[in-house]
Design brief:
Length: about 100
């Protein structure tokens, strides 16, 4: 997967997140319910988007500290490495995962 394909995938994930948020709020309003399935789907989409965003930024030469200096909750670095391995040919030499 190239950097360009990853960017397109990030845009598609963002659209899907916004769509699911709207659907979840509509469901909650109509049914006065929690909407657990929507929450699970939304959480998974956000999780995937965050990690792919980190990979995309690192492919562009940013360090993890520059990407998420304010975050208290650390991402899953194993999942980031897995995504990086799928983009091996794109990874610059100076990319270092945070700890």
């Amino acid at each position: 997967m190239s950097r360009k394909e990853l960017k397109i995938e990030l845009k598609n994930l963002a659209v899907e997140i916004r769509t699911n948020k709207v659907e979840m709020k509509k469901y909650q309003k109509d049914n006065s319910g929690y909407g657990g399935d929507f929450h699970r789907i939304l959480y998974r989409l956000k999780y995937e988007c965050r990690h792919k965003h980190i990979v995309y930024c690192q492919l562009r030469g940013r360090t993890y500290e520059e990407i998420e200096s304010h975050s208290r909750v650390k991402p899953n670095f194993d999942y980031i490495k897995e995504i990086m391995d799928a983009n091996k040919e794109q990874v610059p030499e100076n990319v270092c995962l945070g700890s």
